[in-house]
Input
Amino acid sequence: MKKLIVFSFSVILLINCKNNQNKPSSENTNEQVEHKENVRTETKAETKKKELSPHTSTMAMIGDAHIHIDYSSPGVRNRIIFGGLLPYDTVWQAGAHMATWLETNKDLTIDGKTLKAGKYGFFTIPSKDRWTIIFNTNWDQHGKDDYNTKEDVLKFTVTPIISEKIKEHLEYKVNETSETEGTISLAWEKVAVSFPIKVN
Output
């Protein structure tokens, strides 16, 4: 009988030991959770770091016209942009990656000419003293790979505004100035250009 009791007690102790080995301690569990959180945070940080030219858009109502500009916003990153990374007097897709596009649901008057309601590729030709602004029917293209002057529907020049302050990321704005008028502007590095628009 005494041997049976000792044997039973030994079996119970052995089972308890195995259960304790299989059961993770709260300290180990916390370490695992912290490790997973750190990996997750690092992955998010790496993803964010890789996004050098984030895709973005701006839109506004001018009267009953809805104007939407879609673009990717590159950064300066200590580079000379205009006259450096982007040579003067060369067509630029006015953004990064895919060509920038503008969509309007109403006809607009720009530089005394009519831009019909629709969706357009938006291109520029930067130079030191004058910028050429271009609206092109081919809005869905990578960069300026398929740019063709024959598809231009509106082209005019504006004078750039030069600043000593650097605008790190390319930014577009659509501003309403009255019930039927507004401006479209873009700014990047030390340069900004703007032009008036009117809803027909």
Notes: Residues 1-15, 22-30, 33-37, 39-47 have pLDDT under 50 and may be disordered. The chain is about 25% helix and 40% strand. The chain has two domains: 2-50, 55-199.
